[in-house]
Amino acid sequence: MLINACVGTITTTTLPSSVYIFSISFIATLVRSTFGFGESLVAVPLFLLFIPLEIAVPLSVLLSITVALVVVVQDHRQIHLSSAKWLILFALLGIPIGILILLYAQAYWVKISLGALIIAYATYALYGKNTIHLKTDHKWWLFICGFLSGILGGAYGLNGPPLAIYGNMRRWTATYFRATLQAYFLPASLIGAFGYFINGLMNYTVLHYFLISLPALFPAIFLGRYLNQKFKDASFFNYVYIGLIAIGAFLIINAVFDVHPSSS
């Protein structure tokens, strides 16, 4: 019944809006499937041009669940289960804090902080020198990265940056990194989606946009897997950092000039 209602509402969405949501979903999913994370860094800022934050973030989480499920099935042998387990457990502590931020923080400051976070992380990853090398899992770093990932995921659907930092410290290869992060994203995103649901954020409108996005996801997932297998070492991340800096700057400009997303 819920799906029927959403399918019925798709006809009310203008063609440009549908194409926009579809295209951004494809690009964001391709980034996620190729690099293991980052679809929210692409999707949420660009979705905000057309839909409100409280719709964009849950929609991004539904995309995350779909991608993670497919990748876990594809590449389960590449998953570092111990790392994923502890990251998930520590993220559980941060997700409720992030949801509170999403519910009660002012949209202006959310956009500013999200844009600044994207720029700071991408700049660090592109130009910074990570001198920490963890030969085995480290509980303190697992806690820091997992907890921060939970907060950012609950607030912005932005779990990835702390996880990428941990993966860089552990010197995971591209294939290993991609698979292990999906083992984290699948339960973490499901928990986040449940939190959105009980707070009234997982609604007809979110599912409506998700149905528009769905046909774009599977081609992007399989193309991303192919591209991921072509990369060597952690240098593959550099291809996305410049684009992330541009998106972060655009999001800040969008907030400063008070450009509101469409309410459709």
Low-confidence segments: 1-12, 260-264
Assembly state of the chains shown: single chain
- First-last Cα distance: 21 Å
Taking the sheet with the most strands, its summary is: none
Percent range of helical residues = over 70%
Structural class by SSE content: mainly alpha
Number of strands: 0
List the total number of helices.
11
Mass-distribution shape: globular
Q: What fraction of the residues are assigned to beta strands by DSSP?
A: under 5%
Mean pLDDT: 81
User: What is the gyration radius calculated from CA atoms?
Assistant: 17 Å
Question: Which series of helices and strands comes N to C?
Answer: HHHHHHHHHHH
* Count of distinct structural domains: 1
Provide a brief overview of the structure.
The protein is mainly alpha-helical.
Overview of this protein structure:
This protein is mainly alpha-helical. The chain has 11 helices and no strands. Helix 4 (53-74) packs across helix 10 and helix 5 runs parallel beside helix 9. The model is unreliable at 1-12 and 260-264 (pLDDT under 50). Its main location: membrane. The chain crosses the membrane at residues 47-74, 86-105, 140-158, 179-198, 204-224, 236-257. Keywords: Cell membrane, Membrane, Transmembrane, Transmembrane helix, Transport. It holds the Pfam family TauE.
